[in-house]
């Protein structure tokens, strides 16, 4: 895969998800840009940006490509990348996305800025008290979940009853078959004795 900014061959950089699952990102060794396939951006754990950018020598990066305004193409499918802007993405961050494969392109340093903004928003969300509208939405959501859970439990109980009925029927059939085999065996023995 080649960098959309400078067309250099990108290298794989290993990081991890929130749960420690390894994720391989693609980074340009020439300009430091990072490519995230579809869901990698949101799966990558907070704090990973510092590790990923530590792997590359920022001083040796090509500055000629850092401010390029050329039309960038997706490194996966070669479709034009489109800039993301509010309300779809954070302010002040220059990020481009592929509308086809749903990947994200960050210039050098962009991923670190994204993670800093994301951490700030998560922290501010933890400190706020829910509004009455939020509580109402949560109550409605809880009610829907309870209904779905009850329906699932009823379905599970029905399946269990059907399984028990099938087991009982299977056992009855096996008993009938055993009885029929014993009767047949006795008939064969009786016939053999009469001869």
Automatic annotation (TrEMBL):
Coiled-coil ranges (or none): 149-176
UniProt KW keywords: Coiled coil
Domain Transcription factor zinc-finger, first and last residues per copy: 2-41
Pfam families in the cross-refs: Zn_ribbon_TFIIB
InterPro entries assigned to the protein according to its UniProt record, in alphabetical order: TF_Znf
Name of the protein this chain belongs to: Transcription factor zinc-finger domain-containing protein
Species this protein is from: Candidatus Falkowbacteria bacterium CG23_combo_of_CG06-09_8_20_14_all_49_15
